[in-house]
């Protein structure tokens, strides 16, 4: 069979996927770009060309800047905590102890719980009047009076981060555990014979095996955290006093609550650009990591 | 072998216990809330264990009496099932030929890379035109419209999983069948697809979980019981004026049950899918 026929056949087989992807991803993306240069409303007016006005207004606005800071905080802290907790849990699960298989099976629970259910669950836990967190902390004497964890600007973001970490660190743990199990036993044994202590062993023998998979998990989680919408919408809707408003929430408000499709689109593309930068950094990091461990 | 001191062993067991509590406590509490009488949940100090077990909320939510809380819950449950089912079937139908083509013909592989790159796109980048497009087609607040939109998430993911699946099936088996006179489609149907069945199943499960979990598009594109999904119904309950927190918890338990069961039963396949995804990027 000739190569060109093979290629033509491959394109024919891909055609349905490509047609669907162009209509539900390609066209909307192009149209978002077009809308971002107009003052279109979500319903009704087509809008007219306004050049870069939307971008200029959005970037210079305090809403955007404050939201960018909030999003960055959310992404950096939750992902960092997930990485550390995930690796610690994986190191634990890589030890021999009774009940290990059961514990490893349980790790799938937070991951399998739908995001909205997780958000709802934590919203109930943080409830200012009847929540389990208030009850537990007062009953052990750590807290004098019930607090509104999601209702106060200085605790709301931290409370969200805890809820997000609880759901996502087990996945990091499972990825790290798979990598740990790929570390050959004779290498760790040899390093012990050579007198390496546990910390040196982790740093020089085990960590090289973890770097690649963890880096991938790190960047994928960072991109996800940067796009975060669901958990925040269900728990705080970006409040109180916009203290938990992330970029995706801001786009939602601009485009759908205020129905300003044009400026919403420009904001969405700014978010897309930021995520793309992260994704490109990701590709570069992974290539570099693959080069150094191969 | 490593010699382990008693202290080290104690430390391991203590950490394992801590991890188990951290993982289990919130999930168990969700379940306990769902079976505690409302009075127990609003008691101060809070009653951690129900005085009497009360499963009545499950009956309330699963009842189909008209205009009850149950009727709307059941409707959204049914919508979620249908939307996730349709989107999964469509995604797999697109992914099988495309995944096979890319696996066997690397020359077209770049197009799959482009499709997968779109997976990084924030949904907000597509939401406004999708909203306008669905409105124009009359598919807002419609299960078919939402299922179509879900392909933006499911199709790239399933195609990529199918492609890796086909990669692990040697193409020599296919060539042998073709030399024996089988046509391409006979070969795929009789030889390749049966071998790829486990990958198809894993991809379909992942797709179902993704669709079941989706919230953003469902929030934007559905407005009432004709298309509203379970995730939106639960968010409504959580953000509404429901005074019985146990009822919200019950809805959460019911929505979590299918994915948690799939997760526990399919543990091995899911983890290998997730970790290979993590490793291969």
TrEMBL record, chain A:
Family: Belongs to the binding-protein-dependent transport system permease family.
GO BP annotation list: transmembrane transport
Domain ABC transmembrane type-1, chain residue ranges per copy: 68-286
Pfam families referenced in this protein's UniProt entry, alphabetically: BPD_transp_1
Keywords for the protein's UniProt record, in alphabetical order: Cell membrane, Membrane, Transmembrane, Transmembrane helix, Transport
Gene3D superfamilies with a match to the protein in the record: MetI-like
Membrane protein topology class: Multi-pass membrane protein
Compartment(s): Cell membrane
Ranges that cross the membrane: 12-30, 73-93, 105-125, 156-183, 204-223, 265-285
Record-level GO cellular component terms: plasma membrane
Transmembrane recorded as keyword: yes
Gene source species: Aminobacter anthyllidis
Main location: membrane
The protein's name: Sugar ABC transporter permease
From TrEMBL, chain B:
Biological source species: Aminobacter anthyllidis
GO CC terms of this entry: plasma membrane
Record protein name field: Carbohydrate ABC transporter permease
Gene3D superfamilies cross-referenced by the UniProt entry: MetI-like
Cited SUPFAM superfamilies: MetI-like
Transmembrane residue ranges: 7-32, 83-102, 114-137, 143-162, 190-212, 245-266
Keywords: Cell membrane, Membrane, Transmembrane, Transmembrane helix, Transport
Domain ABC transmembrane type-1: start-end pairs: 77-266
Tree of life domain: Bacteria
Major place of residence: membrane
Gene Ontology terms: biological process: transmembrane transport
Family annotation (InterPro entries): BP-dep_ABC_trans_perm, MetI-like, MetI-like_sf
Subcellular location per the Swiss-Prot or TrEMBL entry: Cell membrane
Similarity section: Belongs to the binding-protein-dependent transport system permease family.
Topology with respect to the bilayer: Multi-pass membrane protein
